[in-house]
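User: Before I run my own analysis I want an independent prediction to cross-check against. Here's the chain; please return only the structure tokens and, at the end, one sentence I can use as a sanity check.
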Amino acid sequence: MIAAVIGVGIGGSALPFYTAGLFIGPLRSAFGWSLGAASSGNLALSLGLGLAAPLVGRLVDRIGARAVVIPGLLLEAFSFLLLAAMGGSFFLYVGIVFAMGLLCAGASPLSLTKVINARFVRARGLALGFCLMGTGLTAAVAPPILSRVIAAHGWRAGYLALACAVLALTPSALLIRAMPTPLTVEETNCVRADFRLSDGRFWILIAASVLAAASLAGLVIHLTPILIDLGATPVGAANRVGAIGIAVLSARLLVGAALDRLPAPWVGAVLMAAAAGGALVLRYAGLEGALLAALSFGLGVGAEVDLIAYLCARYFGLRAYGRAYGLLYGATLLAAGLGPLAFGMIADQPGGYGAV
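Assistant: Structure tokens:
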């Protein structure tokens, strides 16, 4: 469990995502890029992760999680080093971030949630919540610390710090073990469950996940520049953004416990409604409602991946979990990449961030 929490937190779908907003302003200042260009890195990352996800899912089904997590973390750290050394070429920046997503996709919830699903049965929802707390820890800790590094030493030092953090924590992945317990009747039925693309539940999950991922990712990535536009200092904005991590941590446990007791679709609906309300608060209350908005976004982010992993195991079983979750996760990541890009393009217009 500890290894899974760390792996999720420093993996390619968490650490680059929750720190991307801190680099938008510095990259614009250094190279004169537009908001849309400076925020397009998340799209490149998501494209790489999304394209690799189905293949990684199959590999996890065949060779296990640890064999794909460790190489993914090492390649992620190397990608951060390349970003620290890059020049002002926008295409080089996009290429490096795309390659990061493609090569570090093994270090993601796609691999690590299968370990948890295989190990826990009766309290699976709560176990998944604990595992995915890694993203909340990253969202809470990384922005405040990294914003100070960037303010004191520049954006290149920020990328170097990220590379060092990943390398320092990579050895924890050696602790990953699936070690499934003897199967109960419920688990035996889950393992025997089949996955087919014709299953309507799969496409409902795709639609819900894509809509949620696009809007939530756009809000989280752009929250720092939104708050700065509203009058916050860069450090003050980063501190408010850190509240997302606190909400994600709370939502992981709340959602995990609720999934073991309540219908999963209703759990997701309530938390997504809360996130939608947070967007309205930010629009009409400005900085006064920024903390509440950040907390509500964290609730939405904290619910989404847990729900996908839980429902995927419940509906399609463990035998083809990697394949089913790989497709779902890939679509979600692509949507998460398009959302921030769309937000940036809209914000470049005269109306600014109000419309998004």
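Sanity check: The chain has a mean pLDDT of 83.
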